[in-house]
């Protein structure tokens, strides 16, 4: 029996204008990245990041793939007050992280408490993935 989950998940367009903050990223992206460890060690990598409208066009989901470094998915849902609920899931590291996002023109600020190995460490990243 075939169950076309992707056909049920992916939407052609947003259901409204409240997805604009992350809607600008919908598409397929290739990138070069650098991970900065607490001890100052830098790890460089390349990856692919695909964004799509999902769940009837009421949310945005991405899939991040960086070969042996990281892969996972994020679901972003607007609350309606300019704040977004963001859930990052990384099976590779067996971690789920709940965050909030909001526009801080011209940036997107993502904040929250990471769990797993970073338990209790406050994290913030802007739209370029940089920690301010």
Secondary structure blueprint with pairings:
Elements: H1 5-9, E1 10-11, H2 20-23, E2 27-36, E3 42-54, E4 59-66, E5 70-78, E6 83-90, E7 95-104, E8 107-113, E9 122-125
Antiparallel strand pairs: 1-3, 2-3, 3-4, 4-5, 5-6, 6-7, 7-8, 8-9
List descriptors:
132 residues; globular; mainly beta; 2 helices
Task: Explain what you see.
With 132 residues, the chain is mainly β. Strands 1, 2, 3, 4, 5, 6, 7, 8 and 9 form a nine-stranded antiparallel β-sheet that branches. A hairpin with a 4-residue loop joins strand 5 and strand 6. About 6% of the residues have low confidence.
The helix tally amounts to: 2
Element pattern in H and E = HEHEEEEEEEE
> What general outline do the C-alpha atoms trace?
globular
Residues in helices, as a percent range: under 10%
> Structural class given helices, strands, pairing?
mainly beta
Low-pLDDT stretches are 115-122
Termini Cα gap: 49 Å
C-alpha-based Rg, rounded: 15 Å
Please report the total strand number as a whole number.
9
Beta-strand content? over 45%
Largest sheet: 9 strands, antiparallel
What is the arithmetic mean of pLDDT?
Answer: 86
Give a short overview.
The chain is mainly beta and 132 residues long.
């Amino acid at each position: 029996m075939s169950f076309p989950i992707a056909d049920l998940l992916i939407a052609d367009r947003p259901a409204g204008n409240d997805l604009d903050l992350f809607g600008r990223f919908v598409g397929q992206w290739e990138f070069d990245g650098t991970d900065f460890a607490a001890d100052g060690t830098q790890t460089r990598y390349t990856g692919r990041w695909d964004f799509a409208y999902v769940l009837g066009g009421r949310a945005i989901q991405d899939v991040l793939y960086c070969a042996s470094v990281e892969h996972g998915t994020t679901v972003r849902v607007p609350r309606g007050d300019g704040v977004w609920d963001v859930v990052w899931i990384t099976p590779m590291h067996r971690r789920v992280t709940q965050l909030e996002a909001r526009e801080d023109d011209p940036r997107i600020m993502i904040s929250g408490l990471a769990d797993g190995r970073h338990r209790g460490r406050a994290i913030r990243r802007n739209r370029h993935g940089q920690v301010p």
